[in-house]
Every structure is written in structure tokens, then in C-alpha cells.
Amino acid sequence: MAESNTDNSQHLLVTRNLQVEDYDRLVQVMKKCYPMMKGDIWFKSQIQKLINIFPEGQLCVEDNGEVVAFALSIIVDYSKFGDSHSYEQIIDNSNFGTHDSSGDVLYGIDVCVDPEYQGMRLGRRLYDSRKELCENLNLRSIVAGGRIPNYHKYSDEYTPKEYIQKVREKEIYDPVLYFQMSNDFHVRKILKNYIPYDKASGSYAVLIEWNNIYFDEEEKLVGAKKTSARIGVVQWQLRSVRSLQSFFENVEFFVDAVSGYQADFLVFPELFNAPLMAEFNEDNAAKAIRKLAQYSDEIRDKMVEYALSYNINIIAGSVPVYEDEKLYNVSYLCRRDGSYEAQYKIHVTPAERSDWGMAGGSDIKVFETDTAKIGILICYDSEFPELCRILADQGMEILFVPFATDMHNGFHRVKVCSQARAIENECYVVISGSVGNLPKVKNMDIQFGQSAVFSPSDFAFPQNAIVAEGTPNTENTIIADVDLNDLKHLHNNGSVRNLKDRRKDLYDIKIKI
Q1: Rounded to two decimals, what is the model's pTM?
Q2: Whether residue 345 lies in the annotated active site
Q3: What InterPro entries does the annotation carry (predicted)?
């Protein structure tokens, strides 16, 4: 019954290190990106050398196995160059003898995105990977000479300095400079004759820099792995919507806002598409929710699209799914690489069974993501401790609980049980609920909720085991960071060790199917 997809999605994006076998595709992308710049196509031998001397710094994004964007970089001792240098000096006339693994600055020497993929934020995806690499290698900053490709349109009217100011003030649009400023880079200086044959930029470039706030003068952390996750939680206001498009506009607002904080995960509540059920208000509840299920595939596909475009893993609340003449409550994990998987609600409530004729699923599993191993339990499922223990035994680090509760007592059950799951399974638990009301929509007319991120209870975690929580019964968003290394330490060195200290000689939990 569990659903998995890697091939049916229109896009399947993967960020990875560049390989020399990608060269032919790189040439195609460069020719599309640099139509006004002759002589700016890298030779295969140059790409091979970059991969040999600094493989971590050569990044690409592929879509269904085909490279559609790439970024090249080297490490330099910036004191040898200062702020007055040319592109050829940095790349040592394409010999890259300037690369210094003990240097202090990650220097970006090229970024290309296939124009057909504009709007999918692949450039930001590559820049985020560069930033993570800069932090992992404990480098002082990222520096690059940024082109100003629209300057040739205004060179008779403005000096480069005036042009940059106009771009800052949003009076002129420059795709490269605007993008860099939007990604937290600041301008250090204007460089003359940086790339002499860059006629579009008038041979000028803008020296830009992103500072690594975690840079440690004393310690060199080479190749450290990511040990934290940033989580966005939507406390969703149920409101009437005019159409499916209007619903998507509300959803995209939160995806856009949370992804702007470079979050790894975003979670919506259970049945967050319930406002669309008002369209079928004249039908009885069972017919209405089955008609609502007609939208579920389109909603799932749109959430996959958002996950790709905004580079964030989305737990798409839950939606009703009608298949094999049965109605299920299903949560989709939409990964930022374009794949998705489904978790069916295992336990349906008495009201879901009697009013909607809903059936329970039969598969429970841990999902791999690029940040952490996660589990999903929909609302009532969080009140059955066996399910979370099964997930914990499979290595789950973060449990997501989309919920929908009408009254305070129902919310209290979900909250208390979720807190218990975090403590007894030594994991983080994230709950996301709806608030407000939907007149004339049976079972979803009144909502009470307060979203939160819960932690285990030990010295490394908040004293009350609550990482963050929203304002009750008000639409808002939580952004919270959780440390995955703290979980590993807890498993082995905690004050109590719930997972290790179980008496398996007396009892155990197993899946029958």
C-alpha cells in the first residue's frame, strides 16, 4: 500500500559533485548561458584538473540524470591577491596553481544554470551547497567576481557604481547581481578589466563576498558532516478558498517564506486541503470527502513541484486518497530532489470511520532524506506508542505528526502523546495543526491547535523538552533548529537510555505484516 515515486515525477533533481563524464553536457549549458562571451568554454582537461585537485568544490545539479546547472570553485590564500585582481590571476591562466587547500577563502570561478530551468532556483541550490562547503571546511568566506551582464544596456547612461546602486534600489534588474544580493552576498569593490572579453559587463565585475559566521581561527574542521536540521512548521488557518489555484497560492506563501530561511523541512497539518470540501457542501460527508480526494494527485504533484523549486523537503500534511474502492488518509513526503513517498494513516478515529467510511493503512516505515531519517504518524497514530517505537528501532531521528483536532481535549491528547514519543524514543517530534473554522464542512468546521517541536528530556535539550511552539489558535509559523548529534550522544550517554535499557528478554515489538 505504501507509495514510492522516483520516475513518474516530471523532474528529479540531485545535487552532487561533478564528474568528467559530465563534460559534454557542461558545454551545452555554457553555450546557452554565455552567448555574448567568446572563449569562455572550459576545456575538458581543465574540468578534469579541477576535479582532481578539489573534487568537493565542483558541484552540479542533475535532472533525471542530465546536468542542468553547475558551479566551479577553488580555495585560495586571499592575502596573496587582495581586492585588486583579475579573473586570470585567480585561475592562474586556467592552470589552477593558485588552489591552496590550506587557504582561507572559497573562490567561485563559475556558475551556470541552463536557461530552460530558470525559476527553479537551481542557482540558490548551488549557492547553498557552496555555503555549506565553506562552513564544513572552516573557510573565512566565499568570494567571486560577479558579472553584471545587463550593464551594456546602460553603460552610456550610468557608471558601474551608479548601475550597482540602481540595481540595489530595484530600478534596474541585473540577473546575476540581483541573485547574489538576494543570497546574502555584499559588494566589496568594482573590478576593472576583470574578464576583458566580457562585453556584456563592459569588462567590469563586482567583487562580492559571503562571510562564514562560523569561521574559527583556531580550528580547521575539514569535511565535517551536517549535524543539524532546520524545521519549518505551519500552523494553518482554515479559510474559505475560491478555487484550487487560490488554495495553492496560500500554500506557496508559506513554502516561499520558510525556504527563505534555508529550512530543511516544512510540514503542513492533517487534511490541510479541507477548505476545498466546501464546494461539495450539498453532498453528505462521505460523498464530499471522496470528491475532495479527486484533487489529491494534483495537490501531491504541486507539492513535489514546490519542494523542487524551493529546495526544501515538504511533509504535505495529509489528503484523502480513494483507491481500490477504499478511502485512506495519506501524508506525502515530497523531497527536494523531486521524489516522493507516502505514509498512510494506520489508525482511523471513530468519527472518520462512521462519517467518512475511512480505512486504515498497513505499512509503517522510516524515510531517508538528505538531512535526517524521518517518520510520519498522522494525528491519532501518535497516540499508539508501538508505532513510534518501531520507527525508532529503524533509526528515525525526527517524527512529523500532522494533526487536526476540533476541541482542546483532542489537541491535548496529540500534544501529550507526542511529547511522550519524543522522550521514550529519544527523537525530535514535530506537530503541525490547523486553527480556525470552516462553516458547513462537517468534521472540519471547528479547529483547535498549537504547533510545536518537542525534544527528549535531558541536559542537552530544553529544560521543558519544548524546542519551540506556536501561539495557540492563531495562524503562524515556527522555525526551529535541532541538533542531531545530541540524539546520538543521548543514546549512549544520557541520564536514562530508554532505547538501550529495554528488557528485550521480557518483551518486544514486531510488525506482523
Answers
A1: 0.75
A2: yes
A3: Acyl_CoA_acyltransferase, C-N_Hydrolase, C-N_Hydrolase_sf, GNAT_dom
